[in-house]
Amino acid sequence: MSKIIRSLAEEGILSALDQNFAEEMACFGRGLPGGELHEDGELTWFLTGPSGPNGVLLTDFHTDDPAHIETRIQETIQYFQHHQVQRFGWTVGPSSYPPDLANFLEEQGLEHRDTTNCMALALTQPRPPVVLPPDFHISEVTKEEELIIKCEVEKISFGSSEIMATHYRQSYTNNGFGPHKAWHHYIGWHQNKPVAVAAILLHAGIAGIYGIGTLPEARRQGFTTAMLKHVLSEIEQLGYAAAILASSEQSLSIYQKLGFRNFCQLYHYAYFFQAAE
User: Domains of the chain by range and CATH?
Assistant: First the structure.
């Protein structure tokens, strides 16, 4: 078990953050049928098949030698090409090494596609009891049939495709969830109808909050804030002292009101293979 991070100023926090965000996708490599997860001391990458998702999650080259770095990137491109994928991603985080990794990736043909704004919160003082909106309650997912409900709400909330929703359900199922597991899933119920979801991933000594979603017709009723307050309380009870999440512009103000602050960014690069003529 990883050492619990007690402060956002603690040595190793950036590596822990990188590892927690990477673990969400690493679970695809472990949990999807035919998926693969690889670690060789410098790179951590996963493969799920031609249509993906596929990619490099963590990078820690042990040298500044440009020739070595370029060779490893080229070998990685060739690896995914050999497996006939359409594209693969490469995440550059705050602990990636070398610090100018993005320049090497761009020189080898990878394109910057997206940036994730990472927010963090130190749980240093007891939080007040969670007061839920009227006719609203939250339950933790402990059974497969409950997970199916959770994933359906998640799919609609994020506008995900049926394929991606299936990928997430398979990953959650095969990696395990609930007591004594890394993943904890929650459903928010309004008048006994599932309307909101959230998840916690305990990894690398910190708690990542993922998949905070509310059905379109149930938004602006305080359910998202209630879900967040609930999972923060759960994180404290599980013995963790730092929470992280990826923010969108839509939810930024909610996170800030709860004490989350901008902490760092993840840069997402992609390599696209040309279709054979």
Answer: 13-118+266-272 (3.40.630), 122-263 (3.40.630.30)
